[in-house]
Amino acid sequence: MANQKIIIIGPAFPYRGGIANFNNALAKTYYKRGDDVIVISFSLQYPSFLFPGTTQYEKGNPPEGLKIKRLINSINPFNWIRVAKKINKENPDLVIIRYWLPFMAPCLGTIANLLNKKIKILAITDNIIPHEKRIGDYFLTKYFIRSCDAFLTLSSSVLDELNKFTKSSFKKFIPHPIYDIFGRSINKEKALISLGLNPKDKHLLFFGFVRKYKGLDLLLNAMADDRILSMGIKLIIAGEFYDDEIDYTNLIKKLGIEKNIILRSDFIPADKVKNYFCAADMITQTYRTATQSGVTQIAYSFERPMLVTNVGGLAEIVPHNKVGYVTSKKPKDIADAIVEFYKNNKEKIFALNTKKEKKRFSWDSFLIGIDKLIASVDK
């Protein structure tokens, strides 16, 4: 269903992070298909009290061929009215709104409510109930959901949550597609040398923003297992801390695992992502809570084995003992999986299986799924 006019509302370049990367990739896929696509992003996304990182922006050049307009001020209601008027003038066939945080509900819901009634509105809902809950989340999310015609979730667990908010039949789950924006795989030895690491060592990777719900502390406790220490396994922590970094460095010292931890606590730019994934034997996601994770799809892109905890939608994306492990959140169970991985030399077979498994996560299939869902909406 090419030759449509599509508007995507949500963060995009120069904003950084998984949602911005997703929107860039989604817009690029529409553009390649021959659609006229515009991404309407934020002039102000978060006030400073909601953003614990050092900066919301990444460096570099914008994605080639994409029209990205930074128009939305998330805390200015007059701005929302102006943005809706501009979208109505564009007269799109479809507006896709990314929803991930109840804080955004007044802004995004109001813009959606002010659009011409003939415009179809699809919400891609990363979360319905956020990982870090606040008072009023339910009512804010309810307000946003009422403004949309159809819904797409990236995990079945989010679809289950969505069913509690709407009885609409226009909703479906399509898995998160694989990122292809971080370049091609490189040789592991070359990747390790580029990071200043010893190619003879064993390396696990914990990647991305560090927040409490991502369970880095669970993984650190697993790393203190005597069996792991005796095998000389090292953990690369690559990503900016959104929690207090000192809490984690104190835990590392308390556990006595300083020699086994490689800490790279800056934001990892897009052109360096492949170095970290290609350097790792296995990618670890020991989350306390989750819906889905872009880290999983980056791991698939580079055909890396994975270890995930059995929360949210992670287990449905990572078949146990095929492309990696699904464990409980207990550090002992996490440690057991790591030991089994190395003891039985599972890297090669898991990597081969990721190459086969990732074929079901294409962007073209994702767009076909959207087309079918939107075609069923009668306006």
List the helices and strands and how they pair.
Elements lengths: L4 E5 L8 H16 L2 E9 L22 E7 L3 H14 L3 E6 L5 H9 L6 E6 L11 H9 L4 E4 L2 H7 L8 E3 L14 H7 L7 E6 L8 H8 L2 H6 L1 E6 L6 H11 L5 E4 L8 H7 L2 E4 L8 H8 L4 E4 L4 H4 L6 E4 L3 H13 L3 H11 L5 H13 L4
Helix pairs in contact: 2-3, 3-4, 6-10, 7-9, 7-13
Quick recap:
This protein is of the alpha/beta class. The chain contains 15 helices and 13 strands.
Question: Keywords for this structure?
Answer:
seven-stranded parallel sheet, Rossmann fold, alpha/beta, single chain, 379 residues, 2 domains, six-stranded parallel sheet, 38% helix
Overview of the structural elements:
There is one protein chain. The protein is of the alpha/beta class and 379 residues long. The protein folds into two domains: 5-177 and 362-375, Glycogen Phosphorylase B (Rossmann fold), CATH 3.40.50; 188-359, Rossmann fold (3-Layer(aba) Sandwich). It has helices at 18-33, 77-90, 105-113, 137-145, 156-162, 188-194, 216-223, 226-231, 245-255, 273-279, 294-301, 314-317, 331-343, 347-357, 363-375; strands at 5-9, 36-44, 67-73, 94-99, 120-125, 150-153, 171-173, 202-207, 233-238, 261-264, 282-285, 306-309, 324-327. It has a seven-stranded parallel β-sheet, with helices on both faces. The chain has a six-stranded parallel β-sheet with strand order 10-9-8-11-12-13, with helices on both faces. The longest helix has 16 residues, at 18-33.
